[in-house]
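Notes to self, Xylanase inhibitor C-terminal domain-containing protein:
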Amino acid sequence: MYIVRFGIGIFNKKSSYKEYYLDMDTGIMGMGWGRPDNFVDQIDPQSNGKFSFLYCLPVVNLQTVYRKTMSYLRFGADIPTQPNSSITNLQRVKDMALYYLELQGISLNGRRLNISATVFALRGNIGSGVCIIYSSLGYSRVAKHAYDVLLGELEKHYLKFKNLKRYNSNPLNLTMCYERDKEEEFKNLPIITFHFKGTQANMVVIPEGSFEVVDRYNSNRKRVLWFGNVIRAHQQTNQRSIYDTKRKQLLFYLENCLKNA
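result:
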């Protein structure tokens, strides 16, 4: 089996690491736009400027990362239609290959947080401040003011549960870490929603995409970790994302990506 990696490529270079799975790479498919070495621009003449692609990322966290899962990168006519898709515009910033979105707010368990949309507004001409959607592995980054508000609301949420207590030391260097007395996986963890400008453009992030639940060393207890304007792969878990580069739109909707991804 040979592997081609894909992502919002800017400067695409094959890794020199000699790990088994990296040695099997046959190439890297850069799906950014506005650069001649990216697949999107290379295929543009053949698609008459109507190129679109789709990915659907299954749940991948510290518990599932070593399981064999399969997903697909789909193009053009192979992309299934969904009439009730959320739609938001894809924006360009100068000659950047990244996909920018107009983020307007964040909700926790359906309640809009007191964060001004100006926190996510474009500042300068290099893409500062504005939200980016990115298929790289890893966790989202949130502007500091928005992050502080979200952190405060999460703390209030956790106070409702007596079996949760703050754990100040954690191996992943994260701001927020809680410990609980029994194994409950993702039970009682809140849903985070990103609100974008557009048609029903609310990206609902399931708890598996916002939190990590890992075993504590030498204990049966579990600790809950939350990671902290980049929407990365972890937060796109079970989200079918369609990039329509002709219309400059992102279409997305919730989907079980392990089934018919």
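- Confidence is low (pLDDT under 50) at residues 16-24, 218-223.
- The chain has four helices and 19 strands.
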